[in-house]
Model the fold of this input.
Amino acid sequence: MHMERSLRTHIALTARMVAAAAVALLALGAIAARAASVPHAMVVAESAPAAKAGLAVMRRGGNAVDAAVAAALAMGVTNPASCGIGGGGFMLIYWAKTGRFYALDYRERAPLRASANMYLRNGRPDEALARTGPLAVAVPGEVAGLAAALKRFGSRDFQTLAAPAIRLAESGFPVTPHLAWEISRTADIIRHDPGLSATFFDRGGNPLKAGDVLTEKRLAGTLRNLGKDPDKNFYRGKTGLELASFIQRQGGLVSPEDLASYRPVWRTPLRFPFAECEVYALPPPASGGVLLEMLGMLEKGHLPGLGFNSVPYLVRLIGVMRQGFIDRQQYGDPAFVKVPVKELLSPEHIKEARALALKRTPAPLKTAAHDHGTANLLVVDSAGNAVAMTTTINTIFGAKMMEPRLGIVLNDEMDDFAVATGVRNVYRLAGVKPNAIAPGKRPLSSMTPIIVTKNGRFVMAAGGSGGPTIITGVLQVALDLLEFHMTPARAVSEPRIHDQANPDVVLVEERLPVSTRNLLERMGYRLKVWPELGAVGAIMAGPEGLRGAFDSRKGGGADGF
Ligand code: GLY
Done:
């Protein structure tokens, strides 16, 4: 209890320090405005320089996919604790000319030598091995995903799009308050890794602070060496060989064969009607289906009548979040398990799930989840094409390892698997059988980028970071925009809640009024007050053009023309 309180105090204090540093950086002009309203094209990213990189591409005639690739590479440089070419992600693309949607899965994969029992030590699961160190590393998919998107939709070559990222890595950029917080929060661990300590600590051995200049020259060289055929150079060339040999020397499993056999997967996007719109999302192993099921349980038009963030509204949300997460236990990699997404999104199941969600009563338990790595970006171009992308190395600084010569931060995506049935991962999600480890399998993800259309025209896009709070954060922002008609700036900044059914506790942001919290507690809900729950960005179309905003909980850029 004492530890919990001191952790909360620490996080609250850190949040205040981050806010103060943000004000200082804003004054220096180092952070872009949080929201923007423009007529034609827009980028919203969890990194201001990344948003700028994407925008510059579109100003020179590049399309939304070109811009997304440039922004993703720049985001990997500027948000290296959250994402990068050592990780993987999901991309949802709306191609306006044809009105078609495309879902690209470039999630990391378990190495071919991985096994369901790989984290058992003396018959007991050792969860820490899946989170930190070489055995936590899964086969990265980021470069293959960006290359595949570019090959199908791009109009620029990879090196042209990598140029802003290379410039940022080479010349340096000011550390944001959020990155400074991530460095200081993990300093005791990452200072022991030669690559990370050389990059994220100053000469005196102190963690870099907000406003300090961060350079990543090794990463710049690696991005340059990927050349014009990044897929070949990363997965079947010198870069891949160096990467695999480093991971194996450290005791990890990722091999040259793992890299050579990695392929991104084009999947059929999920589609679900809501509020006279069509909501598109990523199928498993992403969690788009969970979000769509939650939307389905919320009868259209009833929510505004309940009042935004009123107690009845929050009770309704808690019910659908819980039911959605209960059904999420059937999710896994569709190449290995049959995920009944169609059934879960059928009118019959939604009706049944809604009844359960309305009936569910609170029951007390103990622990909670919190924001970690991952980053989101959204792009709309002047032709009306849109990209919603979420990408990750999993927790902050992933496996807490960097390949020092390549400057690549390694992911700890193996922790998104069930280390053993019932064992919780870093997000307090209990391990379930469909998400058991198998060679070449993709771990279940909470990443949930969405794009919404009405009569075939772009309405909004959203996505976020923060483990399972991504699903509930994107849900709440989508409802704010579609049902409560808020601006994106307001929608992303309203206080949020999160409930993942197990542990049976409702996380509420401390900005949620105390009177509301008290009423929920009196109803029997066990609440845990948390400074911030994840980060969500959004772009919304309106008569005057596009409005967009990133979440000040993490920082970023929203800009356009
Ligand atoms: N690594 C976080 C997620 O994919 O859910």
